[in-house]
Design the sequence.
């Protein structure tokens, strides 16, 4: 059973926020769509929100009884801005908070791990979503997707390590249930797709779906960190390179039944997502350049 709530959705123009807002609206819930420019999304009430501008907090929280929390992107210590907001949210009457974290970051770990640890002490109703790496990293606006489009290559330091990549639509479906079910999960939830795949596997599937050859370039840890540090702060670049190294060591080689348990349907596989988001309008032959391994 679900109850009608007014949900404040952070990052409402982003990968999971936009999908969460859309799914909530479809299910008949009220949504305040928070973004820096108060972008109008169909069926929502747009509100301006900036983690680094506390003056935007009050209007965003007015009338909300649940909140979907997307941490500020690229901030290695988001608790500094998130915890004051969460305390204000609780004081304003927000009853339930659902935090987007990562399968690679445990409670009390780096970055958003500190917010994860604090959340149960601030809200009686809560959940922490810990998805594996997004399938949309290879289809959307992520650096991997850009590299695929521009150069036909995926660059990582993950080696042959496998990951239970997850569809953002499935993350949003779980977020919607966590925000609106009569009982909150009151736990952290590791979300994956139906199978663990290597980046070589991802490159092969993208090649087959698009008809354009894509390869996986296996970088060293140092090369990966330095590439990232050229465009983002070194501390954050180091953390991301560390995650790739953990993948190479098997840290993300797992699948869970969380999506099925919370939504009643199995998660989407990567081929389904690739065909939905990457398939050309007309079939194209795969270049005959040898086997993909």
Sequence:
């Amino acid at each position: 059973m679900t109850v009608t709530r007014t949900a404040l959705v952070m990052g409402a123009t982003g990968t999971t926020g936009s999908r969460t807002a859309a799914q909530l609206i479809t299910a008949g819930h009220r949504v305040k769509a928070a973004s820096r420019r108060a972008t109008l999304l169909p069926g929502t009430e747009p509100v301006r929100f900036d983690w680094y501008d506390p003056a935007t907090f009050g209007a965003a929280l007015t009338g909300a009884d649940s909140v979907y929390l997307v941490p500020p992107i690229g901030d290695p210590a988001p608790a500094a801005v998130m915890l004051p907001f969460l305390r204000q949210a609780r004081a304003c009457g927000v009853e339930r908070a659902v935090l987007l974290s990562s399968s690679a970051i445990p409670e009390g770990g780096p970055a958003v791990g500190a917010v994860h640890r604090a959340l149960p002490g601030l809200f009686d109703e809560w959940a922490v979503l810990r998805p594996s790496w997004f399938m949309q990293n290879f289809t959307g606006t992520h650096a991997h997707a850009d590299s695929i489009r521009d150069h036909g290559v995926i660059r990582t330091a993950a080696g042959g390590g496998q990951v239970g990549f997850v569809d953002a639509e499935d993350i949003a479906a779980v977020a919607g249930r966590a925000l609106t079910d009569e009982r909150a999960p009151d736990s952290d939830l590791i979300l994956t797709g139906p199978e663990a795949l290597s980046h070589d596997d991802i490159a092969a599937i993208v090649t087959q779906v698009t008809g354009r050859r894509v390869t996986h370039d296996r970088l060293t840890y140092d090369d990966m960190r330095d590439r990232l540090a050229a465009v983002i702060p070194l501390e954050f670049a180091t953390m991301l390179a560390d995650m790739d190294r953990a993948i190479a060591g098997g840290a993300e080689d797992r699948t869970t039944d969380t999506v099925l348990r919370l939504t009643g349907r199995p998660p989407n596989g990567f081929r389904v997502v690739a065909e939905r988001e990457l398939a050309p309008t007309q079939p194209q032959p795969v270049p005959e350049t040898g086997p993909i391994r």
